[in-house]
Design a protein that fits this description.
Blueprint: H1 15-64, H2 69-117, H3 119-122, H4 125-138, H5 142-153, H6 157-168
Length: 178
């Protein structure tokens, strides 16, 4: 006999079990996307590393040549290309930050499914508090901790979103190292 579900509910049907299924689906989807993205970024990172090494070799070769207008133009091109490579590396660092946040989301979703699946834990405030503490402890970036605290405090979501948007507005003072 197949288990009860939302298409064929019976007396054993549970909205908690349906929630667990959807949370599991979300966690798996995020995890698969992270793996796919990671493979692509690894290829890009390796390519940019090789390009940076080649640009350095070209630059050194040009510096060993006698000064002339063509050499100077080539050195400028090397410098500009090296700058673009460095900008790309910074973009990869932001990708790493995104991956770290999504890994936390996946871990939180899976932890939540485990909590919801266990009736002993589901109705126990101590278990919820412990789970929340575990989530917060995983965070390495201050912005994650601030968001977590605001949500747990029960602050309005619109207010939190506005504050985060203001924090994310580009300016040199709000770069967070991770």
């Amino acid at each position: 006999m197949s288990p009860s579900n939302s298409k064929k509910p019976d007396l054993d049907w549970s909205q908690v079990r349906e929630t667990v299924k959807l949370l599991s689906l979300s966690a798996i989807q995020v995890d698969e996307l992270l793996k796919d993205g990671d493979n692509s970024v690894n290829v890009l990172t390796e390519s940019f590393t090789i390009m940076a090494e080649h640009m350095l070799a070209i630059n050194n070769f040009l510096l060993s040549m006698e000064a002339c207008e063509i050499r100077d133009k080539a050195l400028v091109s090397c410098s500009e290309t090296s700058d673009k490579i460095q900008s790309s590396i910074v973009a990869f660092q932001f990708y790493d930050r995104m991956v770290q946040c999504l890994q936390h989301v996946t871990s939180n979703l899976l932890g939540l499914t485990q909590l919801l699946e266990s009736p002993e834990r589901l109705y126990n405030p101590t278990e919820w508090s412990q789970f929340q503490s575990e989530i917060r402890a995983r965070y390495t970036m201050e912005s994650e901790k601030v968001l977590f605290d605001a949500i747990i405090e029960g602050r309005p979501l619109d207010e939190i979103k506005q504050e985060r948007e203001a924090m994310m507005t580009p300016n040199e003072d709000n770069i967070e190292l991770f």
